[in-house]
Protein backbone atom coordinates (compact mmCIF):
# COMPACT_ATOMS: atom_id res chain seq x y z
CA UNK A 1 0.00 0.00 0.00
CA UNK A 2 1.68 3.19 -1.15
CA UNK A 3 0.36 5.35 1.69
CA UNK A 4 1.76 3.25 4.55
CA UNK A 5 5.35 4.61 4.26
CA UNK A 6 3.96 8.16 4.24
CA UNK A 7 2.29 7.56 7.61
CA UNK A 8 5.52 6.21 9.03
CA UNK A 9 7.51 9.21 7.80
CA UNK A 10 5.04 11.68 9.26
CA UNK A 11 4.95 9.83 12.57
CA UNK A 12 8.69 10.18 12.96
CA UNK A 13 8.35 13.97 13.17
CA UNK A 14 5.66 14.00 15.82
CA UNK A 15 5.95 14.69 19.53
CA UNK A 16 5.14 11.72 21.77
CA UNK A 17 6.62 9.37 19.18
CA UNK A 18 6.10 6.42 21.53
CA UNK A 19 2.34 6.95 21.14
CA UNK A 20 2.06 7.95 17.49
CA UNK A 21 3.41 4.63 16.10
CA UNK A 22 0.51 2.89 17.84
CA UNK A 23 -1.91 5.18 16.01
CA UNK A 24 -0.02 4.54 12.80
CA UNK A 25 -0.19 0.78 13.37
CA UNK A 26 -3.92 0.83 14.06
CA UNK A 27 -4.51 2.99 10.99
CA UNK A 28 -2.37 0.70 8.80
CA UNK A 29 -4.23 -2.40 9.96
CA UNK A 30 -7.56 -0.65 9.33
CA UNK A 31 -6.41 0.35 5.86
CA UNK A 32 -5.35 -3.23 5.12
CA UNK A 33 -8.68 -4.50 6.44
CA UNK A 34 -10.70 -2.18 4.20
CA UNK A 35 -8.66 -2.70 1.09
CA UNK A 36 -8.73 -6.48 1.33
CA UNK A 37 -12.50 -6.56 1.24
CA UNK A 38 -12.09 -6.34 -2.52
CA UNK A 39 -15.19 -8.32 -3.38
CA UNK A 40 -18.61 -6.67 -3.55
CA UNK A 41 -20.13 -9.86 -2.19
CA UNK A 42 -17.94 -9.71 0.92
CA UNK A 43 -18.56 -6.02 1.56
CA UNK A 44 -22.29 -6.41 0.95
CA UNK A 45 -22.35 -9.31 3.39
CA UNK A 46 -20.64 -7.17 6.03
CA UNK A 47 -23.15 -4.36 5.57
CA UNK A 48 -26.07 -6.80 5.49
CA UNK A 49 -24.96 -8.16 8.85
CA UNK A 50 -25.30 -4.68 10.32
CA UNK A 51 -28.81 -3.99 9.03
CA UNK A 52 -31.81 -6.28 8.76
CA UNK A 53 -32.94 -4.65 5.51
CA UNK A 54 -32.21 -1.79 3.13
CA UNK A 55 -35.14 0.08 4.67
CA UNK A 56 -33.43 -0.08 8.05
CA UNK A 57 -30.16 1.25 6.61
CA UNK A 58 -31.99 4.14 4.95
CA UNK A 59 -33.67 4.85 8.28
CA UNK A 60 -30.27 4.87 10.02
CA UNK A 61 -28.75 7.12 7.35
CA UNK A 62 -31.60 9.60 7.80
CA UNK A 63 -31.18 9.56 11.58
CA UNK A 64 -27.45 10.10 11.17
CA UNK A 65 -28.22 13.27 9.20
CA UNK A 66 -30.68 14.53 11.82
CA UNK A 67 -28.14 13.80 14.54
CA UNK A 68 -25.52 15.82 12.64
CA UNK A 69 -27.90 18.80 12.59
CA UNK A 70 -28.41 18.34 16.34
CA UNK A 71 -24.64 18.26 16.87
CA UNK A 72 -24.32 21.41 14.76
CA UNK A 73 -26.70 23.15 17.18
CA UNK A 74 -24.71 21.90 20.18
CA UNK A 75 -21.47 22.98 18.52
CA UNK A 76 -22.90 26.43 17.82
CA UNK A 77 -23.63 26.92 21.52
CA UNK A 78 -20.21 25.60 22.56
CA UNK A 79 -18.35 27.82 20.11
CA UNK A 80 -19.99 30.90 21.61
CA UNK A 81 -17.70 30.36 24.59
CA UNK A 82 -14.69 28.52 23.17
CA UNK A 83 -12.68 28.69 19.94
CA UNK A 84 -12.02 25.50 18.01
CA UNK A 85 -8.77 24.29 19.62
CA UNK A 86 -6.35 24.16 16.71
CA UNK A 87 -3.58 26.28 15.21
CA UNK A 88 -3.21 29.60 16.99
CA UNK A 89 -5.94 28.60 19.45
CA UNK A 90 -4.40 25.23 20.38
CA UNK A 91 -4.17 24.40 24.06
CA UNK A 92 -2.55 21.58 26.04
CA UNK A 93 -5.81 21.00 27.92
CA UNK A 94 -7.14 19.28 24.77
CA UNK A 95 -4.45 16.63 24.79
CA UNK A 96 -0.91 16.11 23.63
CA UNK A 97 0.16 17.80 20.37
CA UNK A 98 0.09 15.82 17.12
CA UNK A 99 2.28 16.81 14.18
CA UNK A 100 0.12 18.95 11.90
CA UNK A 101 0.94 17.07 8.69
CA UNK A 102 0.36 13.70 10.32
CA UNK A 103 -2.89 14.94 11.85
CA UNK A 104 -4.30 16.28 8.58
CA UNK A 105 -3.30 13.18 6.64
CA UNK A 106 -4.76 10.66 9.09
CA UNK A 107 -7.86 12.55 10.21
CA UNK A 108 -9.04 13.27 6.65
CA UNK A 109 -8.24 9.85 5.20
CA UNK A 110 -11.45 8.10 6.37
CA UNK A 111 -13.43 10.65 4.33
CA UNK A 112 -11.62 9.28 1.27
CA UNK A 113 -11.06 5.58 2.03
CA UNK A 114 -14.50 4.68 3.38
CA UNK A 115 -16.35 6.19 0.38
CA UNK A 116 -13.83 4.59 -1.97
CA UNK A 117 -14.60 1.17 -0.50
CA UNK A 118 -18.33 1.82 -0.69
CA UNK A 119 -18.14 2.79 -4.36
CA UNK A 120 -15.63 0.19 -5.55
CA UNK A 121 -16.27 -2.82 -3.32
CA UNK A 122 -20.03 -2.87 -2.83
CA UNK A 123 -22.81 -3.46 -5.33
CA UNK A 124 -23.43 0.26 -5.63
CA UNK A 125 -26.88 0.27 -7.17
CA UNK A 126 -26.98 3.97 -8.09
CA UNK A 127 -23.47 4.72 -9.33
CA UNK A 128 -24.47 4.14 -12.95
CA UNK A 129 -26.80 7.15 -12.81
CA UNK A 130 -25.40 10.50 -13.98
CA UNK A 131 -26.67 12.73 -11.10
CA UNK A 132 -25.22 10.31 -8.55
CA UNK A 133 -21.94 10.08 -10.44
CA UNK A 134 -21.54 13.85 -10.56
CA UNK A 135 -22.35 14.33 -6.87
CA UNK A 136 -19.94 11.55 -5.87
CA UNK A 137 -17.30 13.18 -8.10
CA UNK A 138 -17.78 16.51 -6.30
CA UNK A 139 -17.26 14.81 -2.96
CA UNK A 140 -14.14 12.95 -4.08
CA UNK A 141 -12.67 16.01 -5.78
CA UNK A 142 -12.63 17.78 -2.43
CA UNK A 143 -11.33 14.93 -0.34
CA UNK A 144 -8.64 13.75 -2.73
CA UNK A 145 -7.19 17.23 -2.49
CA UNK A 146 -7.79 17.50 1.26
CA UNK A 147 -6.46 14.09 2.28
CA UNK A 148 -3.81 13.21 -0.33
CA UNK A 149 -2.45 16.60 -1.42
CA UNK A 150 -3.09 19.33 1.16
CA UNK A 151 -1.27 17.68 4.12
CA UNK A 152 1.98 17.46 2.15
CA UNK A 153 1.83 21.11 1.10
CA UNK A 154 1.65 22.41 4.68
CA UNK A 155 4.61 24.58 5.60
CA UNK A 156 5.32 24.65 9.32
CA UNK A 157 2.11 25.03 11.24
CA UNK A 158 1.36 24.45 14.89
CA UNK A 159 0.64 20.98 16.17
CA UNK A 160 -2.96 19.80 16.53
CA UNK A 161 -4.25 18.85 20.00
CA UNK A 162 -5.13 15.17 20.16
CA UNK A 163 -8.79 15.87 21.00
CA UNK A 164 -9.26 17.95 17.84
CA UNK A 165 -7.45 15.32 15.79
CA UNK A 166 -9.60 12.47 17.17
CA UNK A 167 -12.89 14.35 16.71
CA UNK A 168 -11.98 15.22 13.12
CA UNK A 169 -11.16 11.57 12.42
CA UNK A 170 -14.52 10.41 13.78
CA UNK A 171 -16.40 13.10 11.85
CA UNK A 172 -14.73 12.16 8.55
CA UNK A 173 -15.52 8.49 9.12
CA UNK A 174 -19.14 9.25 10.04
CA UNK A 175 -19.80 11.76 7.29
CA UNK A 176 -17.94 9.81 4.60
CA UNK A 177 -20.13 6.78 5.17
CA UNK A 178 -23.34 8.82 5.39
CA UNK A 179 -22.78 10.85 2.23
CA UNK A 180 -21.48 8.19 -0.12
CA UNK A 181 -23.54 5.24 1.08
CA UNK A 182 -26.64 7.31 0.42
CA UNK A 183 -25.47 8.56 -2.97
CA UNK A 184 -24.08 5.25 -4.19
CA UNK A 185 -26.88 2.98 -3.02
CA UNK A 186 -30.10 4.82 -2.25
CA UNK A 187 -30.36 8.31 -3.76
CA UNK A 188 -32.84 8.48 -6.61
CA UNK A 189 -33.09 11.48 -8.90
CA UNK A 190 -35.31 12.02 -11.94
CA UNK A 191 -33.63 11.67 -15.32
CA UNK A 192 -33.79 15.44 -15.88
CA UNK A 193 -32.15 16.30 -12.54
CA UNK A 194 -28.80 17.38 -14.05
CA UNK A 195 -30.67 20.10 -15.97
CA UNK A 196 -32.75 21.18 -12.99
CA UNK A 197 -31.99 24.73 -11.73
CA UNK A 198 -31.12 23.39 -8.26
CA UNK A 199 -28.51 21.02 -9.65
CA UNK A 200 -27.04 23.59 -12.03
CA UNK A 201 -26.91 26.37 -9.42
CA UNK A 202 -25.55 23.97 -6.81
CA UNK A 203 -22.84 22.69 -9.14
CA UNK A 204 -21.75 26.23 -10.00
CA UNK A 205 -21.65 27.16 -6.31
CA UNK A 206 -19.68 24.01 -5.52
CA UNK A 207 -17.10 24.71 -8.22
CA UNK A 208 -16.72 28.37 -7.25
CA UNK A 209 -16.33 27.42 -3.59
CA UNK A 210 -13.79 24.74 -4.41
CA UNK A 211 -11.69 27.19 -6.41
CA UNK A 212 -11.83 29.83 -3.64
CA UNK A 213 -10.91 27.25 -1.01
CA UNK A 214 -7.91 25.87 -2.91
CA UNK A 215 -6.69 29.33 -3.98
CA UNK A 216 -7.02 30.74 -0.46
CA UNK A 217 -5.06 27.82 1.00
CA UNK A 218 -2.35 28.55 -1.58
CA UNK A 219 -2.20 32.19 -0.48
CA UNK A 220 -1.92 31.23 3.20
CA UNK A 221 0.86 28.71 2.52
CA UNK A 222 2.92 31.32 0.70
CA UNK A 223 2.61 34.19 3.18
CA UNK A 224 6.03 33.48 4.64
CA UNK A 225 9.24 33.22 2.68
CA UNK A 226 11.61 30.35 3.53
CA UNK A 227 13.07 30.91 6.98
CA UNK A 228 10.47 33.49 8.04
CA UNK A 229 8.35 33.07 11.14
CA UNK A 230 5.38 34.88 12.63
CA UNK A 231 2.01 35.88 11.23
CA UNK A 232 1.27 38.12 8.25
CA UNK A 233 -1.85 39.69 6.81
CA UNK A 234 -3.11 37.60 3.88
CA UNK A 235 -3.82 39.50 0.68
CA UNK A 236 -5.09 38.60 -2.77
CA UNK A 237 -8.10 36.68 -3.98
CA UNK A 238 -11.09 36.72 -1.64
CA UNK A 239 -8.80 37.79 1.20
CA UNK A 240 -9.20 41.31 -0.16
CA UNK A 241 -12.81 41.13 1.06
CA UNK A 242 -12.92 38.74 4.01
CA UNK A 243 -10.60 37.43 6.72
CA UNK A 244 -11.82 33.84 6.32
CA UNK A 245 -11.57 33.42 2.55
CA UNK A 246 -10.63 29.74 2.85
CA UNK A 247 -13.62 29.17 5.14
CA UNK A 248 -15.94 31.06 2.81
CA UNK A 249 -14.80 28.82 -0.04
CA UNK A 250 -15.49 25.60 1.84
CA UNK A 251 -18.87 26.78 3.15
CA UNK A 252 -19.89 27.77 -0.40
CA UNK A 253 -18.62 24.46 -1.72
CA UNK A 254 -20.75 22.32 0.59
CA UNK A 255 -23.76 24.64 0.32
CA UNK A 256 -23.61 24.06 -3.44
CA UNK A 257 -23.25 20.33 -2.87
CA UNK A 258 -26.33 20.39 -0.63
CA UNK A 259 -28.36 22.28 -3.22
CA UNK A 260 -27.30 19.95 -6.02
CA UNK A 261 -27.86 16.83 -3.91
CA UNK A 262 -31.14 18.05 -2.43
CA UNK A 263 -31.12 15.62 0.50
CA UNK A 264 -31.15 15.80 4.28
CA UNK A 265 -27.72 14.15 4.27
CA UNK A 266 -25.96 16.77 2.14
CA UNK A 267 -27.88 19.55 3.90
CA UNK A 268 -26.78 18.32 7.33
CA UNK A 269 -23.16 18.35 6.17
CA UNK A 270 -23.51 21.90 4.85
CA UNK A 271 -25.13 23.09 8.09
CA UNK A 272 -22.44 21.54 10.29
CA UNK A 273 -19.67 22.94 8.09
CA UNK A 274 -21.22 26.42 8.18
CA UNK A 275 -21.47 26.42 11.98
CA UNK A 276 -17.87 25.34 12.56
CA UNK A 277 -16.22 27.45 9.85
CA UNK A 278 -18.24 30.59 10.60
CA UNK A 279 -16.93 30.42 14.16
CA UNK A 280 -13.37 30.07 12.88
CA UNK A 281 -13.77 32.98 10.49
CA UNK A 282 -15.10 35.28 13.22
CA UNK A 283 -12.32 34.23 15.62
CA UNK A 284 -9.66 34.85 12.95
CA UNK A 285 -11.17 38.24 12.12
CA UNK A 286 -11.05 39.37 15.75
CA UNK A 287 -7.53 38.01 16.14
CA UNK A 288 -6.25 39.85 13.04
CA UNK A 289 -7.71 43.14 14.26
CA UNK A 290 -6.11 42.67 17.67
CA UNK A 291 -2.75 41.62 16.20
CA UNK A 292 -2.31 44.17 13.41
CA UNK A 293 -3.02 47.87 13.79
CA UNK A 294 -2.95 48.31 10.01
CA UNK A 295 -5.43 45.51 9.32
CA UNK A 296 -7.87 46.63 6.56
CA UNK A 297 -10.91 48.19 8.22
CA UNK A 298 -13.19 47.44 5.28
CA UNK A 299 -12.47 43.72 5.31
CA UNK A 300 -15.31 41.62 6.73
CA UNK A 301 -15.09 38.30 8.58
CA UNK A 302 -16.84 35.93 6.18
CA UNK A 303 -19.34 37.52 3.77
CA UNK A 304 -17.98 40.32 1.53
CA UNK A 305 -19.37 43.77 2.43
CA UNK A 306 -21.88 42.31 4.92
CA UNK A 307 -20.45 40.18 7.74
TrEMBL record:
Coiled coil: none
Superkingdom of the source species: Eukaryota
Record family assignment: Belongs to the steroid 5-alpha reductase family.
GO cellular component, one term: endoplasmic reticulum membrane
Pfam families recorded: Steroid_dh
Protein localization: Endoplasmic reticulum membrane; Microsome membrane
Domain 3-oxo-5-alpha-steroid 4-dehydrogenase C-terminal: 159-307
Membrane topology: Multi-pass membrane protein
Keywords, comma-separated and alphabetical: Differentiation, Endoplasmic reticulum, Lipid metabolism, Membrane, Microsome, NADP, Oxidoreductase, Sexual differentiation, Transmembrane, Transmembrane helix
GO biological process: androgen biosynthetic process; cell differentiation; sex differentiation
Biological function: Converts testosterone into 5-alpha-dihydrotestosterone and progesterone or corticosterone into their corresponding 5-alpha-3-oxosteroids. It plays a central role in sexual differentiation and androgen physiology.
Annotated protein name in UniProt: 3-oxo-5-alpha-steroid 4-dehydrogenase 1
EC number: 1.3.1.22
